[in-house]
Amino acid sequence: MSSSDQNPAATPASGGPAEPAPPGRPTTVSSQVLDVGAQLVQALKPVRQMKQHACSFALYAYDLHRQMEVHHFVSRLNQDVLQCAVYDSDKPSARLIGTRRRRLFSAAPARRAVTKITVVMMAGVEYIVSDTIFEGLPPDEQRLWHSHAYEVKAGLWTDVGVPESLQSSEMASLAKTYSKFWCTWQVDRGDALPLGAPALMVSPHAAEPGRARGELVRGRDERYRIDSSAGGLKAARVEMDEPEWINPNADYWRLHRKGFAVDVVQAEMKRHAPFP
Amino acid sequence: MASSCHNVEVPGKPTETGTALLETATGTIQGFAPLNQIHQHLCAFHFYADDMGRQVEAHHFCAHLNEDVRQCLIFDGPGAGARLIGVEYIVSEEVFLTLPDGEKPLWHTHEFEVKGGVLFMPGVPGVVERRDLEKVCKTYGKTIHFWQVDRGDALPLGLPQIMMALTREGQLRQDLADCVEKKFGVSFHKETENRAYMSGPEHGIHPLANAAGKGLRTEIREVDIPASTTAGAGRVFT
What's the complex ipTM? Predict the structure, then answer.
């Protein structure tokens, strides 16, 4: 019925321009007022727990050449387990895309600027666990997880806007962790809405086909004034402890040269009442 | 506020003081725009698209992308220690109708949950809550869960699960309903009367929505990884 590695059928929801935006009207004032009202009385505690913002790159487990910049908002459950809301960027942006003629007989200037507001799409969820926890998982489960050592030491994963001296101990711990990342909106493919089955993601590595593309990394580095080059973060992190051992069940593609795709198929629903 | 109606203990050591302090310090320097757009907390129930009996109390923390599209993080409770168990995207009927037919079954309707009072905004007075829920009543949602807390998983194991929503009387488990009503001091039954005026999608519930009335399951498949990209693949023989 739907697969993570299948391109969606051509509709307004799919295969859009390079910068997809979901279809729909601008948020109305009444909706905004309702939102503000709700915020006044609702504590939103689980969201407030997301205290760290990190940026990195993720690759699709079914095609490592499909890569995207990802922004993680990280919440710590305990010393060994973290959970992250993942977005395709960290801020909405307004971009001038042209001008539009004003009506005749208007006192305003003949043409006015038209800006396109891009929104921040929720791309998925990532879970991070310590090596101790990871070693306790069954091998079939471990195959769905990826390691972080290369990504961190190469300066690809970094806390945004935080000096290296402040984040280095956190990064050193992260280098020894493993993650499971499900992507629910394939933004890089131009989907204007979250289509298809969820996709498993993996981390970048030194060797092809797992290398993060140069222009993706450079673009990110320029925008966030990060230097992940050999002279920058890579040098700063060269002394960082490597994990003594990376479990070979993680990063499944490296040993097996195979990826994973997810299918959503029709099935019998066990039911105790009529549906729908 | 009380925690989840599902009992799950996440393995791992308690957070060290140093770690917590560092994260608070670094957190103050960074920008959190996507999270700052989350303005609303909604509580509802989901069940697995292949098993109606497995039901989950789902706390949605939602942001508007625009008037027609929302995106929500789903936690298993309203407290600071709640587990992030899934996501939901919510779209207006107009946007739903543009989805490819193969996609529509993965989406569910909200009409029954809203009119039945089981979808609510904890802490928000009914008069205010209803002004938004009358819009939600007409929407469609796509929910994916990653952490099966209802079966006691201490970690997010296995494949992502497509979830469905309640569509009629008799589906919601009484024990779960009682637990949630008690925890939040609400009465689903009373709220139904207040919401009788609301209406669902203008064109009625689409026949392909709600798993087209059948069920759905996720499976994983090994695939060959493409050797090179189509763009920039070098030619070996010119």
Answer: 0.91
